[in-house]
Amino acid sequence: MKTIFIVIGGLADVPDPERDGQTPLMAASTPSLDALAKCGCCGSIEAVDASVPLSPSTGVLSLLGYDFQRGVVPSSVLKRLGSQQDFPYSELRLFVVPKFSGHGVVISDSAEVRGAAVMGMMKPVFPMGEGVVCSKEHSCGSLVDKAALTIRAIEIFDFVLVYVGEPEAMALAGDPDGKVEAIEKIDRELITPVADYVWNAKMQMNLVVTGDYVTSWQDRRRLHGEVPAVVYFNDDLPYDLNRFDEESVKEGPLNAPLPGDLIRLLISFEPLPEEER
């Protein structure tokens, strides 16, 4: 089964008492993410272990199931790897993502994130055509471009990892309104076209959307904590949650209590029987 795995960097946040306890994700208008919550299997997951330093690359590595007891690869090495530059292979710790290593591609503007995916033996670049090339120049285009690139890539590869980090950038800048706008733009320009494609696909396919860790706009820092996640199978029945946000998904049945569990579930995931929903 083909899989699109979208990681929204810094998606989760802490409740703001001055905003009626809402996080930016709660405040954002996200009709496509909400539709996925209604049709997919949601939950609140611990994506990164508390002992692991937080960064976009460690978030992606953890979600892919990397064992950090093997050590943390320096970001400088990952950036060189993701930019297709020379680097000391002795510092790299390749690992296998069951079912997907060798059959996947990563779409991200971050060379560090692309390097992390290459550790899992995925391709770091994928040219779509004139004007839209994810390459060592560090750009895969706009969110609209990334959506188109994702759709073309999944027609060729079994696994497409997409990382976008605009919500984290806004949180680290202390801009809650900017974070709301970034989340809404991702929902509109990336999630909507990709979800429409998956919904209408004639082959079995699943779509995963998750955060990596909490990024507090109030403190302008990254925090360990649970993040919302949804797994949608295009041949599955609805689970009927109404919203995709930090609080709403806690009622969902997705059970991934340990870092790396989400990717492992994609290999053996069995949707809940209808009578148990």
Overview of this protein structure:
A 6-stranded mixed sheet has the order 2-10-7-1-6-3, sandwiched between helices. The longest helix is centred in the C-terminal third of the chain and has 25 residues, at 176-200. The protein has 277 residues and is α/β, with parallel strands linked by helices. It has helices spanning 24-27, 31-39, 56-63, 75-82, 111-119, 143-154, 166-172, 176-200, 261-268; strands spanning 2-8, 41-46, 104-107, 126-129, 132-134, 159-164, 205-211, 214-216, 221-223, 226-233. It is globular.
Largest sheet: 6 strands, mixed
Share of β-strand residues: 15-25%
Structural class: alpha/beta
Inertia-based shape: globular
* Poorly predicted spans: 270-274
SSE string, helices as H and strands as E: EHHEHHEHEEHEHHEEEEH
- Count every beta strand, where a strand is a DSSP E run of 2 or more residues: 10
The percent range for helix content is 25-40%
The number of helices is 9
Features:
single chain, 277 residues, alpha/beta, six-stranded mixed beta sheet, two-stranded antiparallel sheet, 9 helices, 10 strands, 32% helix
